[in-house]
Specification:
Number of strands: 7
Strand order of the largest sheet: 3-2-1-4-5-6-7
Number of domains: 1
CATH superfamily: NAD(P)-binding Rossmann-like Domain
Shape: globular
Order of helices and strands: EHEHEHEHEHEHHE
Distance between the termini: 41 Å
Largest sheet: 7 strands, parallel
Strand content: 15-25%
Helix content: 40-55%
Structural class: alpha/beta
CATH topology: Rossmann fold
CATH class: Alpha Beta
Number of helices: 7
Bound molecules: NADPH dihydro-nicotinamide-adenine-dinucleotide phosphate
């Protein structure tokens, strides 16, 4: 453990960007607290992280449940006594056109992508205020900045994450709390995200799109590492990164 070792909580850590970020940050000496619904996956990831002497723990978490998210924060405090970084990463992207009426998908996106982020902020901010230090890393998307047919609800949730993050940044700056806020807005990254698209037409189109050039979650993790390791008096407020060939 380095003297700069931070306690970092990551939601949606059972695959993709969350998993890659957990593994990289642990390798760099940070202590990880991982949450997601798939406990077996979390167990495998923490076993792999801890096998080389790095430190990580996990708990099953559903970010749509306020108590469940709070319990993840409580676990971090019980185990490590502080929360330096909270990464609101859990998310899903079941695109569909409005005419398909996939109301369940709309609600899941609102619950996970938007409510989940608010619950994360609610669970960690009081601790960061007390510490007079901390950082939120909120995973939005390039879809926070643009929209296309089928992506209306997803873009709305991700634009919401952007707005929530910017308001939080301004509030914490005004309070002098030293709490940093970083939005991460990736383009196409090869993860399990497309697997959960329920509309067959969208799934086919997205698989074809991602197959052209999707980048790896490890690239996103490297960018996040730079935002975490930056000295505390400066914040990277947004990282927008795309595969170079993505239009
Ligand atoms: P993955 O599907 O690989 O990861 C999503 C993670 O979210 C999983 O660990 C999943 O775990 C978790 N999750 C989903 N629902 C819940 C829930 N209710 N409670 C807790 N955890 C949940 O995709 P990515 O790694 O790509 O996605 C990570 C983030 O990146 C998302 O916010 C996504 O919108 C964003 N993003 C991804 C892009 C891409 O191209 N891949 C582009 C732009 C943004 P479990 O099922 O175990 O609960």
């Amino acid at each position: 453990m380095t003297t700069k070792s931070k306690v970092i909580v990551i939601t949606g850590a059972s695959s993709g960007i969350g998993e890659a970020t957990a593994k990289l940050l642990a390798k760099k000496g940070h202590r990880l607290v991982l949450g997601a619904r798939r406990e077996k996956k979390l167990q495998e990831i923490t076993d792999s992280i801890n096998s080389d002497g790095s430190q990580s723990i996990y708990a099953p978490v559903d970010v749509t449940d306020l108590k469940s998210v709070q319990s993840l924060a409580d676990l971090a405090l019980k185990q490590y006594g502080r929360i330096d970084v909270w990464m609101n990463n859990a998310g899903l992207m079941p695109h569909s056109e409005f005419i398909k009426g996939r109301v369940d998908d709309w609600n899941r996106m609102i619950d996970v992508n938007l409510r989940g982020v608010l619950y994360g902020i609610n669970s960690a901010l009081p601790t960061m205020r007390k510490q007079k230090a901390g950082q939120f890393i909120n995973v939005a998307s390039v879809a926070a900045h643009s929209v296309h047919p089928g992506g209306g609800v997803y873009s709305a949730t991700k634009a919401g994450v952007w707005m929530i993050s910017e308001a939080l940044r301004q509030e914490e700056a005004a309070a002098g709390s030293n709490v940093r806020v970083t939005v991460v807005s990736p383009g196409a990254i090869a993860t399990e995200l497309v697997n959960h698209v329920t509309d067959p037409d969208q799934k086919k189109a997205m698989n074809a799109y991602y197959d052209q050039f999707a980048s790896s979650p490890q690239r996103v993790a490297s960018a996040i590492l730079s935002a975490v390791d930056l000295p505390a008096d400066t914040a990277i407020n947004e990282i927008v990164l795309r595969p170079t060939r993505q239009g």
